From TrEMBL:
Residues 1-19 form the signal peptide. SMART domains: YceI (SM00867). Keywords: Signal. The keyword Signal applies. Residues 23-173 form the Lipid/polyisoprenoid-binding YceI-like domain. It comes from Meiothermus ruber (strain ATCC 35948 / DSM 1279 / VKM B-1258 / 21). InterPro entries: Lipid/polyisoprenoid-bd_YceI, TTHA0802/YceI-like_sf. This is YceI family protein. The keyword Signal applies.
């Protein structure tokens, strides 16, 4: 009987050891949706790049995903120039997310990490969907934020000022390395 318990314990340990952390290359797009009193627009940036390690069984994750702040395109060059000024891209060319955890229930997922924008670091929670695509994964999620959370001054023109909140969406593909 004692041998059977020892074998069961070893089997459980071996099963836990199989919970594997995998490394992924991340690429994707970040989009913001903003508004002012007379309208709404979106800006998109396809410079999302990084490397993440993730254990699907535990949700533990580590790594960094960055975006070049100068590469947002809203279809309006003047608005994009204002955004580069708000972000102070000459001093802070990148915004980076230090990934800490990715948990999944079915297709619903929550990505936790610390995001840095223009020298300010804050924890973020990005809720979304995570789907498997062969050996890769696709994450689509978002969060709302405000300029004041990042110590940024909203852009304005004459009497128009960009409103809070700003919606941020992340679409990322994780490819195994």
């Amino acid at each position: 009987m004692r041998n059977w318990l020892v074998l069961l314990w070893l089997a459980l340990l071996a099963g836990g050891a199989q919970a594997q952390t995998s490394q992924f290359t991340i690429e994707g797009r970040v989009t913001y949706a903003a508004s002012y009193n007379l309208g709404r627009w979106e800006g998109s940036n396809t410079s999302v790049r990084g490397t993440v390690r993730w254990n699907p069984q535990t949700g533990e994750a580590s790594g960094q995903v960055c975006v070049e702040l100068s590469r947002f395109d809203s279809g309006n060059p003047l608005r994009d120039a204002d955004a580069r000024g708000v972000f102070d891209v000459n001093r802070f060319p990148l915004s980076c997310l230090d990934v800490e955890r990715l948990t999944q229930t079915g297709e619903d997922a929550v990505l936790l990490g610390t995001l840095e924008i223009s020298g300010t670091r804050r924890p973020v929670r990005i809720a979304g969907k995570l789907t498997r695509e062969g050996s890769a994964y696709r994450f689509v999620g978002g969060f709302n934020t405000s300029f004041s959370e990042w110590r940024l001054t909203p852009p304005s023109l004459l009497f128009l000022r960009v409103n809070d909140p700003v919606e941020v969406r992340l679409e990322a593909r994780a490819l195994p390395r």
